[in-house]
């Protein structure tokens, strides 16, 4: 959800520069089940433009209607949406609608936190009583250091009443994917990963003339030698896919990043190629922690019979998502023999 919040902040800052008001709608509580869970948000501009969504599409019109009161009064409000009679979700959503004012100072502080990959905590004060007026309603952001940042443009915070409810959400750094390789299959993987909201970095050869223009949706294209890969910030909210189509290059990159902490390291190619990589990596580093090998998935992807670059990208991203969400899926690395059926 971090990437969704970043998009809302960036969009709200643009509105503020244009002197156009906007409000933010946040799902802060849920009774039953729903398409999206508490912590999801959307932005509504004064002209009716909506960014993001709080459901699969059924709730947004009602949120837009309820937001008009916030535009008129400048005061936050609560609304509920009972999907038991209109949706198949069997749940009641409690939604906080509040003015969102992203000044240049606020935008710079949040942008720095996103770029430095520091966690962000959002605290929303709300009430389940949509008629209540005595409660302090609104959201604030707590960064690693400093006082809470108010999102409504006010300089001082009103002290919440004792019976005010509180929804806290910890947002980790935006998930990032490093693609070591710059061929056509990396293009497809970059496109699909960026659609998931991930920050994608492509690592190309210093001799490769390709730029960001060749990889729609990616954050950056870096031209690095394997021995320069140690400078990359690959943390626990990261994944790596080695896809250079050159065994020696993939091995050299793996040697230079194995001690970092990505949740997932995918390797394209056959299981024989993976075993050869393992053996040479262990020869290079005999005391290698077995946990490093556990994070390596090769052949990368789940067993869906993928053939085209687009299908292979889907297979790899599905496995990657399953690993980060701790779900069991039929990984190709566990398949015996060829990963493709014989014709």
Broad shape = elongated
Which blocks of ≥5 consecutive residues have pLDDT under 50? none
Q: How many E strands?
A: 15
Percent strand? 15-25%
How many whole angstroms does the radius of gyration measure? 23 Å
* Spatial ordering of strands, largest sheet: 12-11-10-13-14-15
Sheet bearing the most strands, described?
Answer: 6 strands, parallel
The helix-strand sequence is HEEEHEEHEEEEEHEEEHEHHEH
Distance between the termini: 43 Å
Characterization of this structure:
With 343 residues, the protein is of the alpha/beta class. The chain contains eight helices and 15 strands. The strands form three sheets. A six-stranded parallel sheet has the order 12-11-10-13-14-15, sandwiched between helices. The protein starts with a helix and ends in a 19-residue tail after the last helix. The mean pLDDT is 90.
Would you kindly provide a brief summary of this structure?
The protein is α/β, with parallel strands linked by helices. The chain contains 8 helices and 15 strands. The longest helix is centred in the N-terminal third of the chain and has 16 residues, at 2-17.
Short key terms for the protein model shown above:
343 residues; alpha/beta; six-stranded parallel beta sheet; five-stranded antiparallel beta sheet; 8 helices; elongated
SSE topology:
Elements: H1 2-17, E1 22-32, E2 41-45, E3 50-52, H2 60-73, E4 77-82, E5 91-99, H3 104-116, E6 120-126, E7 138-142, E8 149-150, E9 165-171, E10 176-180, H4 184-195, E11 199-204, E12 220-223, E13 238-242, H5 247-257, E14 264-267, H6 271-284, H7 290-294, E15 296-297, H8 309-324
Parallel strand pairs: 10-11, 10-13, 11-12, 13-14, 14-15
Antiparallel strand pairs: 1-2, 1-5, 2-3, 4-5, 6-7, 6-9, 7-8
Helix pairs in contact: 1-3, 4-8, 5-6
